[in-house]
Design brief:
Structural class: alpha/beta
Mean pLDDT: 86
Shape: globular
Strand order of the largest sheet: 1-6-5-2-3-4
Largest sheet: 6 strands, mixed
CATH superfamily of the largest domain: Nitrogenase molybdenum iron protein domain
Radius of gyration: 21 Å
Low-confidence stretches: 1-30, 32-37
Helix content: 40-55%
Number of helices: 12
Number of strands: 12
Length: 298
């Protein structure tokens, strides 16, 4: 005989509260490291392009049933259902895909959706990774969650080798001052704790915003002029903010990078902004070659 409706609702509420407490512990890194996942997930929704890239790299494309619109640049993800924007994914769309795992980011726009998904009994893993170290942790954990530990191990090894090779090549070279502009009007850059700050250091540069204790701080034009970067990186490829437009900014004509024509706008946005393995395997060598043009090909 079926249990009364009120009793079933009470049991569901207890289970959802329990899963919420377990899944949203106040860790700095990965929240819910998969201890509640008894079977390896077969239907995965990725709410950030870094996770989408990683799942594809680990041979898990066939398990991806939903991605955000920010994964548009990935040809492998073209046929996968879209669940809305990274900043505010659609709860209804996610639920309709019947996922057994949702990989989410520690972004304020996703918090309420993740909470509701947990209450509905859908398993959620939230990554709050910071810096290059966080990328390694994310790759390792997705491999463990999805029964791809060997593949993840090989990928991590490649990442370590790439970092070691870049460090070897830039060792002993002068460290030019580097400014990476991640947003314009207003200006935003990469500060302490960001993966871009780590990349600049590994690539043999000095981040002009490295002393700012925020991953992506808002800054002023006066700050950039005063810091006088020797290299400017604009990861805007395909947008209107080009090196020519930077040269026309008032007061920027005396910045070393502008005078010496060391402004680079040929790096794709994804190359150094998406915190996945490709950021290290592909983005890091490209960044190093722009900071130190004499390095040649990797």
């Amino acid at each position: 005989m079926e249990a009364p409706l009120i009793f079933r609702k009470f049991i569901a509420l207890i289970l959802s509260i329990s899963s919420f407490v377990l899944g949203w512990s106040q860790n700095d890194g990965i929240q819910d490291p998969g201890s509640r996942i008894q079977d390896f997930p077969q239907r995965i929704v990725s709410l950030a392009p870094a996770y989408t890239e990683t799942l594809i790299e680990l041979g898990l494309k066939d398990r991806l049933v939903g991605v955000t619109l920010s994964s548009h640049y990935l040809k492998e993800a073209q046929g996968i259902e879209r669940v809305g924007f990274f900043t505010q994914p659609s709860l209804e769309k996610i639920v309709s895909l019947k996922p057994d795992l949702v990989l989410a980011a520690g972004y304020i726009g996703q918090n309420s959706i993740c909470k509701t998904l947990e209450e509905l009994g859908i398993k959620v893993v939230v990554f709050r990774h910071q810096g290059v170290k966080g990328i390694f942790e994310m790759v390792e954990e997705i491999g463990r969650l999805c029964d791809r530990e060997k593949e993840a191990g090989r990928l991590l090894e490649e990442m370590e080798e790439t970092i070691a090779e870049v460090k070897r090549r830039v060792k002993g070279l002068e460290k030019p001052r580097v400014y990476v502009e991640v947003g314009y009007n207003p200006l935003f850059t990469a500060g302490k704790g960001s993966h871009i700050d780590d990349l600049i250091e590994i690539a043999g540069g000095e981040n002009i915003a490295g002393s700012i204790d925020k991953p992506y701080p808002r800054i002023s034009q006066e700050f950039v002029i005063q810091k006088d970067p020797q290299v400017i990186i604009l990861p805007y490829m395909g947008r209107s903010y080009t090196k020519e437009s930077v040269k026309k900014r008032s007061g920027w004509e005396n910045i070393s990078a502008v005078r010496d024509n060391r402004i680079y706008d040929d790096l794709s946005t994804q190359a150094i902004t998406i915190a996945s393995s490709n950021l290290i395997l592909k983005g890091l060598p490209e960044l190093a070659r722009r900071i130190h043009p004499g390095l040649g090909e990797f």
